[in-house]
């Protein structure tokens, strides 16, 4: 479990993390989302004890991580890619790490196999691709069979096979009862991997909920309705909190009413429908709507550029 309480980190004039509080529970994959510069990496570094909070506190599995007697069994983290010595082989890199924690070579071979690097274990790390480097970083994080795992952008640089492998591995770790906290910018990937989310913007908490609650709370579901009498239906549906748009002559997109309500309006006026469907928003839609205005480096819209 990770307990973050009133955590604040200031770098000179930059308030990277501002009074952040949340708990990451064991037994689930929790996604950590936020625009660039929102404070995710800073928060993760403070969780791993690599950076000191300006104020506030972090507890990992109930105690302050720095005070832990067997740190590798408590927390495994992937925070900086290519932290390995480039002249060493992958196996020697892991053996060196294992020795500091009193772990044997057998565990090194286990994690090499777990991340699929057994065939290149003797190769120098300096010749590894980005994806192989990520796998090695994950192997290092898992060496001590930690109860809590913190991974910053683990799918970065991985091909689709690698992305799927990470997804399966993270879910497996959660199923074993471990705490899994993982940041990513890939929303579709997060939607498939995480069941809980912590969302931050400009160092502050935006949401701490299940993925489902987040999607339901951040965006309104829309309704798509097809009718040969779409024009009349459009007039009937008008209301103060209802928006109706149309890209095709006989199709309307309605927000502010449920599919049942749209169906009832059509039925009572005798408007024939050939299609009526509620369209669930995606995690990406919800994320963009929740973090709107929190983006540090917003790009101009194409419309703005054209003007
Ligand atoms: N060592 C540092 N010194 C000064 N400022 C820093 C330092 N580390 C981070 N910052 C600043 O703190 C803010 C938060 O950065 P952080 O890297 O934690 O965000 P992030 O959410 O991980 O972003 P990204 O998604 O781009 O990785 C940014 O404004 C960043 O410039």
Q: Which helices and strands appear, and what pairs or packs with what?
A:
Blueprint: E1 2-11, E2 14-24, E3 28-33, H1 40-47, E4 55-60, H2 71-74, E5 75-78, H3 90-100, H4 105-114, H5 130-142, E6 148-152, H6 160-175, E7 179-183, H7 187-193, E8 196-201, E9 204-210, H8 211-218, E10 222-226, H9 230-237, E11 243-248, E12 251-255, H10 259-269, E13 275-279, H11 283-291, H12 302-306
Parallel strand pairs: 3-7, 3-8, 5-6, 6-7
Antiparallel strand pairs: 1-2, 1-4, 8-9, 10-12, 10-13, 11-12
Helix pairs in contact: 3-4, 4-5, 8-11
Adenosine-5'-triphosphate (ATP) is lined by residues 11, 14, 16, 34, 36-42.
Structure in words:
With 307 residues, the protein is α/β, with parallel strands linked by helices. The chain folds into 2 domains: 2-217, P-loop containing nucleotide triphosphate hydrolases (Rossmann fold, 3-Layer(aba) Sandwich), CATH 3.40.50.300; 220-280, Alpha-Beta Plaits. The chain has helices spanning 40-47, 71-74, 90-100, 105-114, 130-142, 160-175, 187-193, 211-218, 230-237, 259-269, 283-291, 302-306, and strands at residues 2-11, 14-24, 28-33, 55-60, 75-78, 148-152, 179-183, 196-201, 204-210, 222-226, 243-248, 251-255, 275-279. The chain has a 6-stranded mixed β-sheet with strand order 5-6-7-3-8-9, sandwiched between helices. Strands 11-12-10-13 form a 4-stranded antiparallel β-sheet, with helices on one face. The longest helix is centred in the middle third of the chain and has 16 residues, at 160-175. The structure holds adenosine-5'-triphosphate. Adenosine-5'-triphosphate is lined by residues 11, 14, 16, 34, 36-42.
């Amino acid at each position: 479990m990770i307990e973050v309480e009133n955590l604040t980190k200031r770098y000179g004039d930059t308030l990277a993390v501002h009074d952040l509080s949340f708990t990451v529970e064991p037994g689930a994959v929790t996604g950590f989302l936020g625009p660039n510069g929102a404070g995710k990496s800073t928060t993760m570094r403070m969780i791993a004890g690599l950076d000191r909070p300006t104020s506030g506190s972090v507890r990992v599995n109930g105690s302050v991580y720095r005070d832990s007697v067997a740190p590798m069994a408590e927390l495994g983290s992937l925070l900086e890619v290519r932290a390995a010595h480039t002249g060493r082989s992958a196996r020697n890199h892991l053996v060196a790490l294992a020795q500091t924690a009193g772990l044997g070579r057998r565990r090194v071979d286990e994690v090499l196999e777990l991340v699929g690097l057994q065939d290149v274990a003797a190769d120098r790390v300096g010749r590894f691709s980005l994806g192989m480097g990520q796998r090695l970083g994950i192997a290092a994080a898992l060496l001590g069979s930690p109860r809590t795992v913190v991974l910053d952008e683990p799918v970065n640089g991985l091909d689709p096979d690698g992305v799927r492998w990470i997804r399966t591995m993270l879910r497996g770790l959660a199923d074993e009862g471990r705490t899994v906290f993982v940041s990513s910018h890939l929303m579709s990937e997060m939607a498939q991997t995480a069941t809980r989310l912590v969302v931050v913007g400009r160092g502050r908490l935006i949401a701490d909920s299940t993925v489902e609650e987040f999607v339901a709370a951040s965006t309104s579901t829309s309704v798509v309705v097809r009718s040969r009498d779409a024009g009349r239906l459009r007039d009937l549906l008008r209301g103060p909190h209802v928006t109706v748009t149309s890209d095709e002559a006989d199709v309307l997109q309605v927000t502010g009413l449920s599919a049942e309500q749209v169906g009832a309006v059509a039925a009572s006026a005798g408007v024939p429908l050939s299609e009526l469907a509620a369209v669930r928003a995606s995690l990406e839609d919800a994320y963009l709507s929740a973090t709107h205005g929190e983006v540090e480096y917003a790009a101009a819209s194409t419309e703005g550029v054209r003007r």
